[in-house]
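Holo prediction. Input below; ligand is S-adenosylmethionine.
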Amino acid sequence: MSENFYTQKISIHDEMPRLSAQANLFRLLLDPFFDSIHFEKESGKGLDAGAGPGILASFLTKKNPNLVWSACDISEEMVQYCKLSYPKIDWKVCDLRNLDYPDNSFDFIFNSMVLIHIQEPEKVMKEFYRVLKPGGKLLITCPNDKTFEGPPVLLEMVAKHAEIHPADRYVMEKVPGFAKDLGLTLEARTDFVASNDGNDDKPKLDYPTIHLGMMTGWSMLSFMGHPDGMQDVYSRCQSEYMSNRVRFSLKLETHLYRK
Ligand SMILES: C[S@@+](CC[C@H](N)C(=O)[O-])C[C@H]1O[C@@H](n2cnc3c(N)ncnc32)[C@H](O)[C@@H]1O
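Structure of the complex:
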């Protein structure tokens, strides 16, 4: 299987707990968003593309039982785990740059937190277009690291990570252009906001903002410490964060397109 630019040096098993926690928080934001786009009216076949630990795929099946769901990921370990945990979904190992599905297969494609980790995102968009049925919908959601707000050391860490990361942490700015070139129409857009000015015992939803606690906020950023070259700025940021209760916020851009 081809290289996973997402995990690189950390194993997918090491990332699974953080990803699961992230997905459980993220579905609190997705739930009202799906209501706003009348997701319950969709029918036919759905694909969760880059499904990771499968928590959001499982959420989608419950949110709309009328859709018949497939899901895929480049990670064999993730797919093996998900097949056992969510056996009603049709799982497949595949690279989004070369989707192993026929043309015009799906009525709804969901792609969450993946595009920032992929080299050649334009190729992925073309593949989404190919496997979408005419009239089908594509929901793409990802953070845009340019929207981080916080003190200088945090912005330094984010910028350094974006520089080292092999893919594009600002890709959501390019997605509307890719979509336009393919002839996809924008149907809806919401920018969710995650901020760390809440409490750690319970996240507070004030849609489209979610207020996380300080420690929950840091645990969501912990992946930035893994790549070579990040250790110095990561430990300076961590030290400032823990000593001075650093505040940050970030936008998660969410676009819904129709073919
Ligand atoms: C941050 S996780 C997001 C998981 C899930 N969509 C969610 O929101 O909880 C990114 C996932 O993308 C997968 N991934 C990375 N590159 C991929 C590629 N080229 N094709 C398919 N999946 C890929 C990773 O293996 C990982 O499971």
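Strands lie at 44-49, 67-73, 90-93, 106-112, 132-143, 185-195, 204-206, 209-211, 249-258. That is the main takeaway for now.
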